[in-house]
TrEMBL record:
UniProt family annotation: Belongs to the TonB-dependent receptor family.
Record bears the keyword Signal: yes
GO terms under biological process: siderophore transmembrane transport
MF term (GO), any: siderophore uptake transmembrane transporter activity
Classification of source organism: Bacteria, Pseudomonadati, Bacteroidota, Sphingobacteriia, Sphingobacteriales
SUPFAM superfamilies assigned to the protein according to its UniProt record, in alphabetical order: Porins
Protein name (record): TonB-dependent receptor
């Protein structure tokens, strides 16, 4: 009872300014943005999909320090960390597996073909992010394979001024680590330096970030280095070029991460390089064209026994080279989107061998607003994979405007997830082994929802049904057997999702209240007597309440989230941030998991309890 009362007191304090001055609230328009989680780049107010957007201003106020922590606060997103501070995490949407969610940067696919355990190896600092878009539901019509349950698109900023910045932060639980670790208080520390250069014709930004932690448990210490660079060149008013390069080095103790209890002495080192170059051409008032080339290279050195590298060591070298051509054509009766793309995947591995596969796709979509009160977006993606052959993903989105504020939407479509190289070829006996006879997962999802939008209030409530055929899960029938993936049958999910966003301003103070709730009812055809590695921990109930207030000088936020998994494991977490700005300098203090809740996000790995952080950021710009 005391735990509940503490939460009630905290929320009451947070809402006190709202209760006292609500009658003074002024209308405050919510910024209209163009959703890039769609090839046709539809304005948010006209989109017929379940899309959530978190922009840079909101991210800056939240009690977060890296991308993983931000994703954990998004509606319908299940972030399951094996260690804090970006060590290793899996992300999924609406009860899907972590390999059924596609990760993109500026629309370019960065998901890892070796294993989706590495898909979040993204060296993008929060200061370089313009916004994060989450597209929920079957997204294969838009993005092709592996967008089975949705896509997360990270949009980076375009430089608008020259600046220099430095950010230093540290934190601790002020508690000793577990008895086995025996080396003092658990801590983390990080520093980031960055610079941007703005010119009318070209812009550049570069960041370097370094973080280190001694780990909250035995053999979970981590360190990572990140480098991010982006440049833009405006050739003229209708043509521009953009390029991006990034590098990440991530080293961490992996005690219990993948093959507990035998991996107590394991360690993993992951290095990721991602580069892209694209151009945008408005060739006429009607025709737009954008080609892009990307390359993602990943090295994964997994040491099952870190003190004996001659035994049970796995080294994987993966490369994915992609080419895209996207276009839009505007007519008086609607817009057409057409495009082609190819991805060439290669892996050379000490325990998977050498494998190549290519993926080629083409899409076409059409959108019109010419029907009274009705918007239609329909299309299909045709895909050929050298390992799994041809597949077509049709889909349609409909939106009917009841009034200027109320809208009913409906969408349905198919999607697919191709097994990763790890699914197919892994050989880590006695830990995990692959299955080269796997089929790809195929799904169909249908969703209906009602939306409301005014100048300061956005609401969404919907229901969806998803049916996945040939669902892949890692299972074993005996405790001494290795885990191995099989197409075990159908995975059916009924889901309800709601999200409410209210923004207003009182006496130069801007308030933001974001409330969301999701319910999932999933069933899985599974043989009795088997143990599942992933599927038995999906979320059943998920709730969030984000409260933010700020003016020109200070900001404060409280992030509350409730998770209950189908195993009945549940936890309620509350994080707090207070920040204050001086000329060229800002300070912020975070208190995460302030009620010191004991919880687990994946496997049997306990996450940190109460945690305090302090940061100082300097920024000079003109």
């Amino acid at each position: 009872m005391k735990f509940i009362n503490n939460h009630q007191i905290l929320l009451a304090v947070a809402f006190l300014p709202l209760w006292g001055h609500a009658q003074e609230a002024k209308q405050d328009s919510i910024q209209e943005v163009t959703v890039h989680a769609n090839r046709l780049q539809i304005p948010f107010s006209k989109d017929n999909r379940n899309v959530e957007i978190l922009n840079a201003a909101q991210i800056k106020q939240l009690p977060v320090k890296n991308l993983n922590e931000v994703l954990g606060l998004l509606n319908g997103v299940d972030l399951r960390q094996r260690g804090p501070f970006g060590t290793q995490a899996d992300v999924s949407i609406d009860g899907g597996s972590f390999e059924q969610t596609l990760i993109l940067v500026n629309g370019a696919k960065v998901s890892d073909s070796q294993t989706a355990h590495h898909s979040l190896n993204l060296p993008i600092p929060l200061d370089a992010i313009e916004r994060i878009e989450v597209l929920r539901g079957a997204a294969a019509r838009i993005y092709g394979v592996n967008a089975l349950t949705g896509a997360i698109n990270i949009i980076t900023k375009t430089v608008d001024k020259s600046s220099i910045q430095a950010n230093v932060y540290t934190g601790s639980s002020f508690k000793n680590r577990d008895e086995e670790a025996k080396d003092g208080i658990y801590y983390h520390a990080g520093t980031q330096i960055g610079a941007s250069w703005f010119n009318d014709k070209h812009q550049h930004q570069v960041y370097y970030n370094k973080e280190k932690s001694n780990g909250q448990r035995y053999n979970t210490a981590s360190q990572n280095d990140k480098i991010f660079y982006q440049g833009n060149l405006a050739l003229d008013g209708n043509n521009e070029v953009e390029w991006l390069g990034s590098y990440m080095y991530n080293r961490f103790g992996a005690n219990g991460f993948y093959a507990a209890p035998g991996d107590r002495e394991s360690e993993e080192i992951v290095e990721t390089i991602f580069a892209s170059i694209s151009s945008k051409h408005q060739l006429s008032e009607r025709f737009y064209l954008s080609p892009r080339i990307t390359n993602r290279y990943n090295e994964d050195d997994y040491r099952y026994f870190k003190h004996n590298l001659s035994s049970a060591r796995s080294r994987h070298y993966t490369n994915a080279f992609s080419m895209e051509l996207n276009s839009r054509y505007h007519t008086t009766f609607g817009d057409f989107g057409l495009g082609l793309e190819s991805r060439l995947d290669r892996i050379a591995s000490s325990n998977m061998g050498v494998h190549n596969r290519n993926n080629h796709g083409a899409y076409a979509e059409f959108r019109t607003e010419q029907l009274k009160n009705l918007t239609v977006n329909a299309g299909a993606y045709i895909n050929y994979n050298t390992q799994y052959g041809w597949q077509v993903y049709p889909g349609i989105d409909l939106g009917y405007n009841i009034t200027r504020s109320w809208k009913v939407v409906f969408n349905t479509g198919s999607s697919q997830r191709i097994p990763s190289f790890t699914d197919l070829y892994l050989n880590q006996r006695p830990g995990n082994i692959g299955n080269p006879d796997l089929f790809s997962e195929d799904a169909w999802q249908t969703e209906g929802a009602i939306k409301f939008q005014s100048t300061n209030f956005i609401a969404h409530g919907g229901y969806f049904y998803r049916n996945i055929r040939d669902f892949i899960d890692w299972i074993k029938t005996d405790v001494n057997d290795p885990y191995q993936p099989f197409n075990i049958g159908k995975n059916k999910v009924h889901g309800i999702n709601t999200n409410f966003l209210y923004t207003f301003q009182v006496n130069n103070i801007r308030y933001r209240v974001n409330l969301g709730y999701n319910y999932l009812d999933s069933s899985l055809e599974q043989t009795e007597g088997v143990t599942s590695k992933y599927s038995l921990e999906n979320l059943k109930h998920q709730g969030k309440l984000l409260l933010m207030a700020n003016n020109r000088i200070w900001n404060a936020s409280i992030a509350n989230r409730f998770h209950q998994r189908i195993s009945d494991k549940s936890y309620f977490l509350t994080d707090l941030r207070i920040g204050y700005s001086f000329p060229f300098l800002s300070v912020y203090a975070d208190a995460q998991n302030i009620f010191d809740v004991t919880y687990i996000e994946t496997s049997a790995i306990p996450m940190p309890g109460r945690w305090y952080s302090l940061g100082i950021k300097y920024e000079w710009g003109r």
